[in-house]
Amino acid sequence: LIDKPLRQVLTKPDTSGRLIKWSVELGEYDVNFEARPAIKAQVLADFVGDNTPTECMEEDPSESERKSWKLSVDGSSCLTGSGVGVVLASPSGWTLEYALRFGFKATNKEAKWEALIAGLTIAKHLEALRIEASSDSQLVVGLACREYEPREDSMAKYLSLFQSSKPAFEVLRIIKIPRAQNSRADQLSKLATVGELEKNQTVMVNYLDRPTISEIDVMDIDLPPEPNWMTPFINWLKDAILPEDPVEARKSVYRANKFQLREGVLYKRSFSFPWLRCLAPQEADYALKEVHEGVCGNHTGGKTLSHKLVRQGYNWPTLHQDAVDLVRRCDKCQRNANISRRPSQPLTSITAP
């Protein structure tokens, strides 16, 4: 197949003397002319993309004499599950193969990113400073090299996570390779998607419960507490600070005799029980709900609920009223409570004629 005018040479040798000489020379071989068929533009684009490696230099690679760690990553997503495969080769020659199975649904693009993040995390734990990572995903390499702009929120989060991991390495190179050269990582990613992954004893296997870009809800318990009913007693017992109002200051001193501060926790003296721990409003709400409808809760009435909390060693000023209000707001208690037969209005006596 050729796009040169050989048809004229092979079919019309009398057009020129020089062409006749070439026709005689080519006559010894069985050469036939065939017209080239049309080639789709997408096929050409795929061919050029697969056979033209692109490099992304994150650092200056001038010190080529120092050997780098080779990292090959790939991700897979199918109906049976999603997973990634990581192959990390050290400069000394030993190779680490790692398969990671997802406990969540992920697209193929997200699996490719998870593979790269997992590989960089492993390399960071092994204290590898010079990394040459390879992937067959044009999207991941293009985003990492700043050749593409992320259009989806998930891609932008993955790119931000990748950028935050770069300072851990001296040199980080991301290159695009054909899929045929990334066969081992591709096999590991497909191995991570099979159902009988636990029976494999030759490859290191792990599980990922949530995406690495997912935000975990964390409750900060080190924040300074807001002022509440315990604040005057704590200020007096700890720092000898009284309110500015003389009347309130006298009340605080008088009432503080029933309280005691132990290791930053306020306790109140009880008549027939040990010291009762004082609770803030948020802690009181949690204790009420846990005792009323928790694992061992049986949706008792308001008085019984308040006595239970006292027997457990808790106290706050509005304990009894809060317990009654919680029972009144409880949906299950209202649905299963006894129906009141009391008339809504006083009865009117009727005399017989």
TrEMBL record:
Query: Pfam families, per this entry?
Result: Integrase_H2C2 (PF17921), RVT_3 (PF13456)
**Which Gene3D superfamilies does the UniProt record give?**
1.10.340.70, Ribonuclease H-like superfamily/Ribonuclease H (3.30.420.10)
GO molecular function, one example?
RNA-DNA hybrid ribonuclease activity
Which InterPro entries does UniProt cross-reference here? Integrase_H2C2, RNaseH-like_sf, RNaseH_domain, RNaseH_sf
Q: Can you give the residue ranges of the RNase H type-1 domain?
A: 80-191
Q: What superkingdom does the record give? A: Eukaryota
| Residue intervals of the Integrase zinc-binding domain | 287-337
| Name of the protein this chain belongs to | RVT_3 domain-containing protein
